[in-house]
Amino acid sequence: MIEAAGRATIRRLPEALANRIAAGEVVERPAAAVKELVENAIDAGASRIEVRIEGGGVDLIQVEDDGGGIPGDELAVAVERHATSKLKDERLVVIETLGFRGEALPAIAAVGRLALTSRTPSCPHALCLAVEGGRPAPPRPAPGALGTRVEVRDLFFNVPARRKFLKSTRREGELVVDVLKRLALAWPGVAFRLEVDGREAFRVPAESEALLGLGPERLRLVMGRDFLENAAEVEAERDGVRLVGLAGLPTLSRNHGRLQHLIVNRRPVEDRLLRAALRVAYADLLFHDRQPLAVLRLDLPFDAVDVNVHPAKAEVRFKDAGAVRGLVVGALKSTLARHGHRVATSVGGAALARMRPNVSAHASAPVGLAEADAAFAFQAPVGGDEGPWVRLDGAAVPGPVPVPGVEGPLGTARAQLFDAYVVSETGRGLVLVDMHAAHERIVYEGLKAELEAGGVRRQALLIPDVVELEPPERAVLLDHAGELRRLGLVVEPFGDAVVVREAPALLGQAPLAPLLRDLAEDLAETGEALALERGLFAALSRMACHGSIRSGRRLTLGEMDALLRRMETTLYSGQCNHGRPTHVALDRADIERLFDRR
Ligand code: ADP
Ligand code: MG
Predict the structure, then answer these.
(1) Tens digits of per-residue pLDDT, 388-445?
(2) Cβ of 100 less than 6 Å from ligand 1
(3) The CATH number of 216-338 is which of 3.30.230.10, 2.60.40.60, 3.10.620.30, 2.40.50.140?
């Protein structure tokens, strides 16, 4: 129990204590201090930034830059509270630098032992200012190159409570790596190097901003090797808002959302808007809870976004969030539609990787057939010329046939395997198609097109359905009543509840209350009726699933070719309605490598 203490007199906090309290917000943990110091280096025009940490950043953080430096007579001011050289606009509208609050250095100096060494071009030597417990000592001459070196030791030495809440040294170190990688993504023109406990964690050179203003080397570093060749370019512009970036193919996905980066006016930000936009754009392209990969860079006029809403500047607020969301969703959707037939090459690569160890196992030590079978789907026929695995209209496998008129990217059908897969030969190699998955997507997209052309068919309910909702849920649904009507759902106010008079015929007898609640949540979060779309599309998807070729049916070569041609002209045909890939391509070169022919 907390007991009410007797009233004490109001008094001003000593500056050092006030700084230590304020520091809690700005430097939550070592990674936050690194972020502030690196942002200062970028603001100073650095082209090379080196960061060293020890003990997860608690023992040491050192940030060295080759920027403009701090004049000797300003060193002491730099560590004072609310002292900044950056704020030109007192209305806080035009903020062209990453920093502007004048809080980072004093905050860091309040909770760690800080040494600031800097040299400007007009000074023959560097000056060093040491601050301990918030009190600066007079600057002393020191060795040092042009630019600034900030050293912070024993972070939180005087805030034991904060220290206790830190995670393990390793975890804090990883958070520093993340922060620095995100800044590196946003600033391709700057070279970065990070050393953790004396070992280099990563380095990237300064890169030209050619590729959509994103450096390929750092993209590879942050997003993984597969990303560049399995992503599609996103570009859009409207009303001075410009979006560029790369969106991963749906089949290149992860089970977490950590590889979704948004950079707003060169600031890496955490943003619900981006996550929501990605969710909408990839809605029926991903398998279960898989998450897409994306790096998006949004540049907009300074007065269209407020960066001063978060102490660590990790979030921003858009003046017209709806317009920004619309632009991002629209651009992502059209990009994905254009690239929808592609399957990530990493899928084929993964299949190949799985084959190799098995092949070498054969070479070194014989393994049981059953074991080989399990690991290697393309088992060679064992005895008999009509093995259970390859069928070509029930005939034997033909010898190599020249490919005279390879018709499209998916090539010419050659055979059917396990009654479930079509093998086709292309100019580059072979393609293996999961015919059920492919056909499901074809039927589904067809149904969706019908839906869009004719609008959603509504069905009047014999007994209108009264649904009780929380007031905010009810309000957001009624606000979007017009939109919902177009999607087949007619909702009206009914006392404290709402009444549903008509519902999409496609949804059949599905209960409406859960749909309405999901809808209210989607609308509140994303501004789009995702649940209804999802509900309708799920209904379509179920129909498509029943209406499509079941595995187990044998196709003629003509039917197989027809399937391939339709896939080539169908949106999103790279993945089925559940997000599984519909086909895998294996390059001839890779196949030959399997047999040591290259
Ligand atoms: P802010 O970045 O919001 O201005 P800081 O407390 O981070 O506040 O920094 C205070 C000032 O110190 C900056 O405005 C800048 O003039 C100077 N400064 C800090 N770090 C550097 C650096 N690495 N290079 C040059 N100047 C710096
Ligand atoms: Mg700063």
Answers:
(1) 222 222 222 232 333 455 467 888 888 888 888 888 988 888 888 888 888 877 777 7
(2) yes
(3) 3.30.230.10
